[in-house]
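Sequence in, structure out. First:
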Amino acid sequence: MAPARRFGFVLLTVCAVAAVWLWLFSTQGSTIDDEPRVGSDTESMTLRGSNPVEATAPVRPTADATREEQPAAAAEKLAYIRGRCIAGETGEPLAGCTVKLRGFHRNSSVVARFPVPEDWKQPKPIETGPDGLFEFAFDPPRANQWSLGIEAKGRVPRTGRWGLIEPGFVDDLGDVEISKGYRVRGIVVDQFAVPVAKVGVRVRNLPLPIRAGMAANSSRSGWSDEQGRFEVGVPIPAGTWSIKASKAGYRHVEPDVVVVEEGTGASDLRVVVRRMPSISGIVVDELGRPVPRVDVSVKLARSGSIPSDWTDKDGRFVLYAIDREPQPVQLEIDDPGPCELQDLPKVYEWGTRDIRIVLRRAVSVGVTVVEKRTGKPVENYAVSCWSNRSRSSLQRDMRLGGRHAGGKVTVDKVWRGKSQLQVFPSDPALLPSETIEFEATDAGAPPMRVEVERMQAVRVRVLRSDRSPVPGTTVEVIRPGTRRLDPRRGVSDIRRGRTWWSSDPKFRPPLLLSAGTTDDDGYADVHAPASDGALIVRARGPHHLPRIEENAVLSPGVEHELVVSAGASLAGRVELHGIPVERLGLKLRYVATRRDGPRVPLQADGKFAADGLPEGEVELRLTIRNTVRTEHGGSGSTIVCEPPLAKVVLDETRAQTIECDAARFVPGRLNGRVYLDGAPATPARVLLIADHWAIGQFATDTRGRLTADGLLPGRYRLQLVVGDFKVGPGQRIDADGYFTIEPGKTATRTFHLVRRRMRVRIVEADGETPLAGAKVFVSSRRGWSRRLETDEHGWLTIDLAPSSKVQVYVRGRNDGPVGSVEIPKGRKQAEFTLRLAKR
């Protein structure tokens, strides 16, 4: 089998977001967590309609039944999340579970455009009765994302998160297993055995998501008291779990993991932390006044956790070292608050006090927003204003959202020099303004009048070829770009402020101007600008082929028709053999064009159905969602399994039904022991690498034991992660050879890895003069790479060198590698000399 990695990596930020912290503390008591928030581009997570996975719970009150108790207008605004709690050991309904649903802000741009109503209230918690059922019916503000937490005494909690939830959304979670767990407790001391209070001890990467692959909080914590004693606030499942102790100014030393045994639980932990050095100072403006809310951080050339702090009301900040061996650092400012950004080139030793950073206060500009044709003030809008000198896209976030009397607002945080401004009205009939470039001086900028265009209301009707109406279809009005629009591909929403980027200055993306959904009679109310002569109108729905009309002319009072084709239909069932359906999907690939068709959802029993499909021969492929979690972040991807489940010819004139068997993709398990230089590999993490994707990370216990579940059958190699992986990517060592996971089987394997060290000296073409201070890139064919610099004698030192051949490249020498080196088999160290070619 050769799984192929596909688009879908989602970078998960490591920084704790205030909104997520609010959620964590409001729903989980004493929990702390560094789980990533849902990405700032949360509009891509819009949820509509009902969840495609069938409920496995017994019959319960339906959303329609609930709506009958609501006024019709109010019911249309409601969304529903429901499920049933069952005991993990028996499958019986579980009473006494506390279920909490919480809404919290998505990102600043969305909040600026869609402020949460002042009278909105969080849904009330639910306690399950003897039937274990729960249901939330709620009015979802557009600015919110959502979390669900389930807790029960003596049992492991379950959690889940959703992005944008719209009115009418229904998610039936089915049966949610709530299993018994165990207490985790102990004491926190420093390196001198003195108890340390107010330390958060977090157990991480727990299997808490309600559905596999669901965004969720996967950590639980407890805080140490004055005697250093702590207990994690909820029961923890059996397994080997990463732990981390957190307190400003302290670094976690040991242990690396907690082992929770089935039936006996975990032994009391002795968690050791050590005090770390700091750098502190004050941020003031040009008049010496303190500047609060400035984000000061350490500039590090690696991914992972970064020391940072917001200045307090007195402008003061404290940064604590987090790396195992702190080196002198340079500071930087990510968000200058009310000031302008400034480079901080000086390097500071840890322990430095009373640093004084002087920033210059930004200026402001008065803005009045009016309608283009009438001059009528536009009062509800948000603003994006950014400097041409800004290095961060975050400065382009929308702000100052809300009502502005007379259309007037004062835009602050304007940097001197050239800047750009754009206005985003709340009224969907008003287009965002053009981007306006202006220049500010010490005196600010002249008052600005910004005109926005009101679009015309138009009606579009979507019909089938037999003239019957098509309800529930999305109708989009799109401004053309420089490339032809893909019928199924999404387009950039002009109201979101950020559009696709290209290095080609002539490139223009297609822009979504307006969208609506057809009613039972096939009508959708949309808007179109009067000034655009040629537009694209597109109809996309679940039960017909996408329909695009280019060069469309939309006029008020004139009904515009789109006739759509039904397309082909496909239904069937996949025999899943116990594979968790929550991770699965189906993808169609058209054989003739090798292009992917739509994804097809799988129900809990493996059934699927789709219509509105293009005709042609297709391969039906199983997809599996995969997540790689590190100690400081993670990424997700969709694995497309090979070979295809089936081939079928889609024909609009007849429905197709097929049966497929996924037995060859049933996940297996690895039970392993990992040794490094003859000793158990601990503390360490393990990644399992297939051809084009990875799974993990997995924690080794104190004896180097490893258990890895949910492995897609195929060939793997092991990669050991050592070093300072708690705050950064760590250092990786590849094991020699491969092992195979058979469908549904357990593989047992012992891995012996070797820590290798390589020294390479690079000299000039004369063979004598060392190449000192050169930037060098070294890499191997397995994807291993390093960026290094030669010392004054031309030497590079490569710790944890790979066993395979290493290519050495020198910056500025574009004629290929300087040479390649390889440690001889059976040796752990080697030295080499490479000579530059004559120019």
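Second:
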Amino acid sequence: MQRFNNILCVIAAEAEQRWVLERAVTLAQTQQARLTVLTVLEPVPPVAGIVPQSVEQTLQQRFIDHVAAQLRDIPGAMAPQVKVVFGRGYLAVIREVLRHGYDLVLKPARADADLRSVLFGSDDMHLLRKCPVPVWLLKEGGAVPYRRILAAVDFDPAAAAEATEFNRRIIELAAALALAESAELHVAHVWEAAAENTLRLWVPGTGEAQVAAYVAEERQRHERWLQELMAAAAAVWLGQETLDYLKPQLHLPRGNAGKEVPALAHALQADLVVMGTLGRSGIPGLLIGNTAETILHKVECAVLALKPAGFVSPVTLQ
């Protein structure tokens, strides 16, 4: 199963976020991964009588001391690297990822009052759209350990190989965390009978029985796909023993994924949703674009969001 080797935990310099550090330390321990704790500060402007470099060094040391004080009371906490960088929030974070090869960004969600999102602020949304590695946004006050984890998967028949690989990563991550947290694993695939209204309104002689048969056939097709996906998880990705232990519960809600995934997460009282956020040309069906954005604006729990293989961040080091 996929594991993380180099974790970047991003916290605010001014806030007491011991709960985030606890989650990061525990994850790094279970994954046997390196851990770096980062804060991003606004650059110090040149002012008469003040040397920006000396001020930045003072701020960096104060943040290192601040993190060290919070780590003292965390059982078994290692001494992670602690860094301060100066720049613009999400851009600085993504550039750190590009420079140092982190394979996970972990940070607390910070909602903005002027956004539609229940949980996430503008920097969070930029990271979800543009960061090249998985982004795990934590919810303050959430259950520790998690009780229920929901993996949202989808497929595109026109790009079956790429879709299967992306869904494999989603299921592997969700399963690994469910094992680590002793949590229930739920796997959801939202489906639609796309031609239902077309048949009813525009195909002469089509009766309700025929429409109902079409809808039933579509549901069976999507159910077969989900069963085949989980069979591959048992046979190849995770192993039958792991699946037997986790006993994942499968869900096939019908409707629009942007509405049904948050509704299911709410109904299950899920603590974490694992999902894809952005696709690339040729994979239009993987919870991308407006669908993913809608889910993120409505979901009320923590989110672990992945990009498909081959995704290139629009953020560069220049």
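Remark: The beta strands are 6-10, 34-41, 81-86, 104-108, 135-138, 148-152, 184-188, 249-251, 272-276, 302-306.
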